[in-house]
């Protein structure tokens, strides 16, 4: 054991030392670092085993030195030769050795103590990490998030789960854990980029590699370079995942997603998880690499200067974005039905379409400077009283999104419903409905009808001007195909957002 440990220290120092110097002064690409750091961390273990194990055959054993006896020493002394007539000792008499052979050297206790303590500490650390993994996981059934994931290649085996984690994390070989407020942190494009980053970790089996290499680095603590190499490998793995995610979602979108996640998630990586945002210093390097065009060649100092300047400017954007624009107004968006109340069913389900369109409309209105209140942001059951409570009198408008159904499958098109003019907000609601009707006509042509009076509770009892939009027929194949198309929903949402903006600021 002592021989193996000393050999391992020699081999690992000769391997890891030059590699760390190379990474410090002339860092190669992330792909090269990823492969070389894994090999450098594991190879010394194997080479030490091969070189320190004694051979069983093929090597001549050194001759054993003869035992020195009293008779031999007496015979070698010239003054001690016996006279010719002296009796000679019988060859059968036992001869007592003067010097005994040296006993075998026992194994050095410090080698066993160092190795055993490292293994015990690594097992304790990773055992506690496994025990503290979130046990309560709920599958993500939100169609908007699931659709974002399924658009990525190779994601059919990946499972999304809600869990008490600080940020999006990859776990095992097919699980991505998400915190519940992730949709408040990230708009859909940035959320898709974060999912792509974690999907890349799963494709590379990074959670398993992280556990294995981290265990080795902790167990063999007698080599302090192991921790530095393990940290460098984690950084290279993050950069490799960034490259894959940026290729499928866009470099700037991923950079924005990393910065948004870093504001909410802690920077210290967990032993068994692969969070999207790691240490702040390395996050600066990653975002700088994403924001810098790969084909532009600049000196290293200029890269650092521009990267630091870019991160500093991006860090100041959130407070400026909050303090600078004056909101045009507040709008309540009600995604009809939800949870156990599926609404109308046909070629599409009403609760799913209304939620997808409500989220898109929320993002478009937010970009126009409108404050948005959502009655629901996920697939949940709400009563009419819950929806009315979330329609605050401080809002200026209410839009309730729904679908129509008809026994005649040829019936299609959108409709706008408002409360009767005798209602408290009747006249203002009619003006809003007319603006929405114009926007819908620009998208659907003559397949729009209204404004039509409706006695729906969400309209009659609304404290603010309100309109109920039926954006299509779930029972019509053409309408369902359009509403299932993200490009059409985006076009429809932008037209509605412009109509709302004109209603708030005529």
TrEMBL record:
<feature type="compositionally biased region" description="Low complexity">
    <location>
        <begin position="87"/>
        <end position="100"/>
    </location>
</feature>
<dbReference type="InterPro" id="IPR050695">
    <property type="entry name" value="N-acetylmuramoyl_amidase_3"/>
</dbReference>
<feature type="domain" description="MurNAc-LAA">
    <location>
        <begin position="395"/>
        <end position="501"/>
    </location>
</feature>
<protein>
    <recommendedName>
        <fullName>MurNAc-LAA domain-containing protein</fullName>
    </recommendedName>
</protein>
<keyword id="KW-0378">Hydrolase</keyword>
<dbReference type="InterPro" id="IPR008756">
    <property type="entry name" value="Peptidase_M56"/>
</dbReference>
<dbReference type="Pfam" id="PF05569">
    <property type="entry name" value="Peptidase_M56"/>
</dbReference>
<dbReference type="InterPro" id="IPR002508">
    <property type="entry name" value="MurNAc-LAA_cat"/>
</dbReference>
<feature type="region of interest" description="Disordered">
    <location>
        <begin position="55"/>
        <end position="100"/>
    </location>
</feature>
<dbReference type="Pfam" id="PF01520">
    <property type="entry name" value="Amidase_3"/>
</dbReference>
């Amino acid at each position: 054991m002592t021989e193996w440990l000393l050999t391992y220290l020699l081999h690992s120092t000769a391997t890891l030392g030059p590699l760390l110097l190379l990474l410090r002064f002339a860092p190669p690409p992330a792909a090269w670092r990823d492969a070389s750091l894994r090999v450098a961390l594991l190879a010394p273990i194997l080479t030490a085993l091969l070189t320190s194990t004694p051979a069983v055959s093929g090597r001549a054993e050194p001759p054993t030195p003869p035992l020195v006896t009293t008779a031999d020493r007496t015979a070698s002394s010239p003054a001690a030769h016996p006279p010719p007539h002296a009796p000679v000792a019988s060859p059968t008499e036992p001869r007592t050795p003067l010097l005994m052979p040296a006993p075998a050297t026992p194994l050095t206790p410090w080698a066993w103590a160092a190795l055993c303590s490292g293994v015990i500490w690594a097992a304790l650390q990773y055992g506690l990490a496994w025990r503290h993994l979130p046990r309560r996981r709920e599958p993500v059934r939100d169609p908007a998030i699931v659709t974002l994931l399924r658009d990525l290649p190779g994601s059919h085996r990946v499972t999304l789960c809600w869990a008490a984690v600080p940020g999006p994390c990859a776990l095992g070989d097919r699980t991505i854990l998400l915190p519940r407020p992730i949709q408040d942190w990230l708009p859909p494009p940035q959320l898709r980029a974060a999912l792509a980053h974690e999907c890349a970790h799963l494709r590379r089996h990074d959670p398993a590699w992280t556990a294995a290499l981290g265990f080795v680095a902790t167990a063999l603590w007698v080599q302090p370079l192991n921790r530095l190499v393990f940290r460098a490998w984690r950084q290279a793995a993050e950069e490799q995942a960034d490259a894959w995610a940026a290729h499928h979602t866009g470099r700037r979108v991923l950079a924005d997603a990393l910065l948004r996640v870093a504001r909410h998630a802690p920077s210290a990586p967990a032993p068994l998880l692969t969070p999207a945002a790691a240490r702040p210093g390395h996050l600066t390097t990653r975002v700088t690499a994403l924001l810098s065009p790969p084909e532009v060649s600049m000196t290293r100092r200029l890269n650092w200067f521009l990267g630091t300047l870019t991160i500093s400017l991006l860090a100041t954007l959130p407070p400026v974005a909050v303090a600078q624009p004056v909101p045009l107004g507040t709008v309540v968006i009600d995604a009809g039905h939800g949870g156990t109340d599926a609404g109308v069913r046909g070629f599409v389900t009403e609760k799913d379409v209304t939620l997808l369109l409500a989220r898109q409309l929320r993002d478009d209105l937010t970009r126009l400077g409108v404050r948005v209140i959502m009655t629901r942001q996920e697939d949940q059951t709400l009563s009419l009283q819950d929806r009315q409570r979330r329609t605050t009198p401080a809002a200026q408008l209410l839009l309730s999104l729904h679908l129509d159904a008809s026994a005649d499958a040829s019936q299609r098109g959108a409709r706008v419903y408002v409360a009767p003019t005798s209602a408290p907000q009747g006249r203002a609601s009619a003006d809003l409905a007319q603006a929405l009707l114009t926007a819908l006509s620009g998208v659907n042509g003559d397949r729009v009808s209204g404004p039509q009076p409706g006695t729906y509770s969400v309209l009659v009892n609304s404290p603010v001007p309100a309109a109920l939009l039926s954006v299509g027929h779930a029972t019509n194949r053409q309408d369902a195909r359009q509403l299932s198309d993200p490009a059409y929903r985006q076009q429809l949402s932008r037209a509605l957002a412009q109509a709302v903006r004109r209603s708030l600021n005529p």
